[in-house]
Amino acid sequence: MRGFVLALALLALPPCASATVQWTDTATVAKSKAAWGRLARLPDGRWLAVTTRFHGKGTPTTLTISLGDSRGREWKELSSVAEPGRNIDNGELLVLPDGRILLGMRSLIEGKSYRLNVHASDDGGRTWRFLSTIDRNENPRGRKDRGVWEPVFSLLPDGTLSVLYADETLADGKPSYNQVVSQRTSRDHGATWGAKSVLVAEPGGGKLRPGMPVMSRMQDGRYLLVFETCGDDPQCPVSTKISKDGVTWPDGLGTPLADQRCGPQLTATTRGTVFVTSCQNEVTWSEDNGASWKRVTPPAWPFGFRHTWPAIYQFDDNEIGVINGVPGGGVQIRFGTF
């Protein structure tokens, strides 16, 4: 999606100042019974959104694909994806250079089967077909904490497709890792996947739960990874790591990132500014490739810490948008200009 992102003009600010963003209008992607909104931009400039939809007790969740205009203001439902008998969530979209769209998700029968599945569309998101399974656990022995969760795609410069995800499948090993951040790569755009690589884990194993990873390529060519680490703190503080190539990462639990907790999301603009948000519902930004961070005041959504699962995207030269779950069960985007 980087290829469709335009340069972002920032105001010159003194050191350690807060960024000034004028939050403007709001667009509704889903009105009710929805959560977890994620976006991708189509080659023609329009947007796709995926949201999780809830249908009442005993009925599995589904994913709805919505089509938005080039400004992200007007949305209409386009298609729906279901896996019969399975709850699906954590939708993630990626548009490949040839126009094919990938839809990643977690798919589960609680206590029985946990999968990260990929569906593909060759007609702009109108129809979908199953493509592959990234990782799975088909023998959790009734456990609810032996799953795989929150896949996030990135396309590397050589055309390799990367997926990061939270992984509980090493919890029964020796040593035991309650949860780790794992990565797999694909040379055929998601049809098949290579061996698992662990990017973040508690040294020596233990109760800590690094997870919900997202990475983005910064202006200097390096990759910034943000992730939460649950276990000691129920609000799951966020940390960062940096990689030269997006596949080789330093050991350890990374560098703490202030003002962010639980479920971090980021975007790196072609101007070089990196924006991060999370369930803390703050927006922070860096102009020096993640070396230092400033906080935007006021935030896009004045919710404080809340499991709303926001994500942040660039829409125009001087515009960003934060998609978020809102009271009443809807999903909306709030736009902001510098």
Automatic annotation (TrEMBL):
The keyword DNA damage does not apply. Residues 1-19 form the signal peptide. Keywords: Signal. Coiled coil: none annotated. This is Exo-alpha-sialidase.
